[in-house]
Amino acid sequence: MAHQNILVLDFGSQYTQLIARRLRELQVYSEVLPFNTPADEIRRRTPAGVILSGGPRSVHEAGAPRCVPELFDMATPVLGICYGMQLMTDMLGGEVASAPHREFGHAVVTVQPRGNGEPLFTDLPSELRVWASHGDYVKAEPPGFSVVATSANAPVAAMEAPARKLFALLFHPEVAHTDHGMEILRNFAFRVCGCIGDWTIESFVEEAAARIRDQVGSRHVVCALSGGVDSAVAALLIHRAIGDRLTCIFVDNGLLRLDEAAQVQRRFVDKLKLPVVSVDASELFLRRLAGVVDPETKRKIIGNTFIEVFEREARARGQFGFLGQGTLYPDVIESVSVVGPAAAIKSHHNVGGLPERMPFALVEPLRQLFKDEVREVGRQIGLDEEFVHRQPFPGPGLAVRILGEVTPERLTLVRRADAIVAEEIRRAGWYRRLWQSFAVLLPVRSVGVMGDARTYEHTVAIRAVESRDGMTADWARLPHELLAAISSRVVNEVKGINRVVFDISSKPPSTIEWE
């Protein structure tokens, strides 16, 4: 089934993905495309509307990103947001200038008295507290446009040319800081673009299974099951589509959380009946990590060893035409440069380069979805609530939560401490409020006293952060009573640790993981 679609052209805003997510919350399917997407490609997708995102540049800068001019003559509704508004103004004959008073943060926008009724502000108050982020402003709107909202520092805070289906805002309706932002996007999607809200998670599940069947035909699929949410949901969707022609391979690298291998067996094999081959390669991984302290070297060893083990096991189990991966939509977006090939955020290989090494085509049933949507799909197809909301876990596992050499003894320490952190965070009702919470073993020993004896033992750091998507994060203000409970249990129950510290660094400048 073809769903109505609103395209978001990305000019580099940190909020671009959020625009698409907000539209999907309205059950309107939305895709993010590069700012310079050709006119023919836009027409081919027959969008119900197009949104021009914000961005960090000025339209007057040399090389500032621009969309194709034909976009404004397609009779498809277009909404420009912040930089998108300034670009629309510049390309259509208005004037953009450096603002006498820049607006970053909260601003108050006054909607002009309604004449024929401004579609974006229908049924909204005449005064809105919004989130602004601009150094330029629209000094004069383009010919044929009318001003529909102003602010103290922006004589044109919103403008429209309804006959041409062109609309623009100098503020960000997609962020939570903007009052009635969702209503503004709803008005654009439903009143202006004529959307009916035909995209749901339920429809996605059935359509994804049908797409997998069409793609795979009668061939077999192999999937790397990590024990995380993304690979689990991908495997379950593929299994729903083709049954036992799927083989999942779970590699125990010896760097997993406490009891994780047994949990995979109980959850995916015993309960959900997935065809899973479990491989214990922990001895091989630990042997190759012996003596290694550099974080990047650790990651490369773990990635290359995983590929080697996975490749060997897959070849031993027959001929597979496809590799199933849990690639998500942010991975797809981040693989596409916003402002030119040199600025791509990252290239994405979900399982460490396997497609280059093995003759597989990819099956990626989640490549249309954001993380919160993947969780909802998991809920729909039978994953238990606790697992659906499981916090992210790094691909290299506990190896990057041990600063310094990875040894069996040090793994035991961090594994047991980490389990206590998770138990106490859950008990206190904080687990789902946090993006991640875990223990890190430091390459530090310190003097302590236990009973009448002097100790000289290890130190662990507790990391707990709040985040929307992991791109930025703030350290969580956990209650002192919770921190005290974690510290007491770790010191008393994990022999070899006598000191616990709490990490109060945000991202940026720090990363969430320590390595």
Topology readout:
Blueprint: E1 5-10, H1 16-25, E2 29-34, H2 39-44, E3 49-52, E4 78-81, H3 83-91, E5 95-111, E6 127-140, E7 146-151, E8 154-161, E9 166-169, H4 181-192, H5 201-216, E10 221-224, H6 229-242, E11 246-252, H7 260-271, E12 276-280, H8 282-289, H9 295-316, E13 322-324, H10 329-334, H11 354-357, E14 361-363, H12 371-380, H13 385-388, H14 408-427, E15 436-450, E16 453-466, E17 474-475, H15 480-493, E18 497-502
Parallel strand pairs: 1-2, 1-3, 3-4, 4-9, 10-11, 10-13, 11-12, 13-14, 16-18
Antiparallel strand pairs: 5-6, 5-7, 7-8, 8-9, 15-16, 16-17
What this model shows, in words?
With 515 residues, the chain is of the alpha/beta class. The protein has three domains: 188 residues, Rossmann fold (3-Layer(aba) Sandwich); 188 residues, HUPs (Rossmann fold), CATH 3.40.50.620; 106 residues, 2-Layer Sandwich (GMP Synthetase, Chain A, domain 3), CATH 3.30.300.10. It is 32% helix and 25% strand. Strand 10, helix 6 and strand 11 form a beta-alpha-beta unit.
